[in-house]
Amino acid sequence: MVTDRIVDHCQRVDGDRPALPAHLLDWFAVAVGGAAHADSSPAILEGLRAIAGPTPDPETDATATVVPSGERMTPADAAFANGALAHSLDFDDTHLSSSLHPGAPTVAAALAAAEGADASTDRFLAGVAAGYDVACAVGEAIGPESHYDRGFHVTATCGTFGAVAAAGVVRGLDGGELRDALGIAGSQAAGSLQFLANGAWNKRLHPGLAARRGIEATDLAAAGVVGAADPIDGDYGFLAGYTDEPNPEAFDRLGERDAVAETGRKPYPCCRYLHAAVDGLREIAAEIDPEAVDEVRIAIPSAGVRLTGEPIESKRRPDGFVDCQFSAPFVAALTLTDGTADAESFLRAVGRFEAPPRWDDPEMRRLMDATSVGTDPAVERRFPAEWGAEVAVTADGETHERSVHTPLGEPETPMSTAETRAKAEGLLAGTGVDAERLVEVVETVDDRTVAELVDAATV
Predict the structure, then answer these.
(1) How many Å apart are CA 323 and CA 438, to the nearest integer?
(2) 165, 296 in Cβ contact below 8 A?
């Protein structure tokens, strides 16, 4: 049974993963950056405070920290806050074959559980590793394309199971309790793609809700609540209800894979389906004058076209942060005019750093109108093993083409140490968090306490 495989893996998991420090640095940076730059963050935090009620007493109650403010909440509420903040810029890490963001929900759940239980760093790291492994396996098993077709957001649904694994390992749940927690999570996994209709903030909430569910399910299980048997592959389980193309064989690799090492980190704060296109357009931008561009053609996997290119009329007229993140025409226009779509460039273009938003800029609009988005047989054939792109830009009567198989940040084309640190420094600038200190603490995490890790990410 799938549940037995997950429980067995969680009880054996090793947190000694070479790639984990870089992913932790990335998670803290995007969470702190989300708090500083996402327009949704003040409302999300204020709403969470209203839901949470009175602040718990750290002398008598289990509490955990919200970054970077240092505010203390219950572990469930802190997990919600941090998970939402880590995804609020859509700049968090991405596992391609499962099409989800594993870090946002699983690190948030593991960190809150570790603080609440005063767990060791080794236990925290093991929980994070388990969360990645389980979330990615469930994501592959659900068949991401079919799951999307049904209107579900993979990070929200499959991230719930990863968060349960992360919190359960950190809290030291036994096999029976873990089974019950996963069974409880089977009735909690939720998350709709309807946020695409208006750029809603639901998407930013999703990893936070998943992280919170991880804490709540393990709380209930530890208290003796009996969860459903076979919540994933049962007759009425997750696979039966959420996909037309289940792939339970994905669980065969549990215990053999390192999902952290399989997960890429994003150099650009937009939908991951667009990153290979950005890589190609960056090269072309160095060869042309953007004012001379007549046509831009982008071919990406069809699943990405649905998210970033349809309906094309609205994608050419984004009017908010989320709209821009999921607009291939906007990202193309930005890359061609700025030569990149990195954190500073993108945030400035959507109205951060006291700059006016550029979606109404005439030159940006002209380039967006010149951009078409579709797929290509070669790109589609290689997906999901590769999230590639074919791009072509016609300028001054000459067509410049690029074919990118693997975007920057994937394990095959990793961000360098300098690029990783530069991303963190860019996100932490002006937040009050000392980037140099956070880098130092995360890179020596094996020799640090969880409290030291949290302290380095708070102001």
Answers:
(1) 31
(2) no
Question: Per residue in 133-169, pLDDT tens?
Answer: 999 999 999 999 899 999 999 999 999 999 999 999 9
Whole-angstrom distance, CA of residue 311 vs CA of residue 318: 11
Do the Cβ atoms of 15 and 77 come closer than 8 Å? Answer: no
- Cα dihedral 10, 132, 387, 238 sign: positive
Say how far apart CA 229 and CA 213 lie, in whole Å: 18
Helix ranges restricted to H, 243-301: 259-262, 275-285
Query: CB neighbours (10 Å) of residue 459?
Result: 11
Place of tokens 């649904």: 157
Residue pLDDT, tens place only, 324-368: 999 999 999 999 999 999 988 998 999 888 889 999 999 999 999
The Cα–Cα gap between 147 and 44 comes to 27
Backbone φ and ψ of 72, nearest 5°:
-105, 135
Instruction: Supply φ then ψ for residue 14, to 5 degrees.
Output: -115, 130
CA distance 230 to 44: 34
Other CB atoms within a 10 A radius of the CB of residue 236 amount to 10
What angle, 0 to 180 degrees and rounded to 10, lies between the N-to-C axes of helices 154-171 and 2-12?
50
List beta partners, residue 404: 389
DSSP class of residue 272 equals G
CA angle, residues 425, 427, 428, in degrees to nearest 5: 65
- Residue/partner pairs of 54-58 with CB below 8 Å, 24 or more apart: none
Euclidean distance between CA atoms 382 and 378, whole angstroms:
6
> Residues 6 or more apart from 88 whose CB is under 8 A from it?
34, 35, 38, 40, 41, 44, 204
Q: Nearest 5°: phi and psi at 354?
A: 60, 30
Contact between residue 205 and residue 82 where contact means Cβ atoms under 8 Å apart = no
Give the pair of three-digit tokens for residue 140.
């592959």
Q: 313: burial class by Cβ within 10 Å (0-12, 13-18, 19+)? A: exposed
Strands (E), 170-318: 293-299
Helix residue ranges per DSSP H, 223-274: 238-242, 259-262
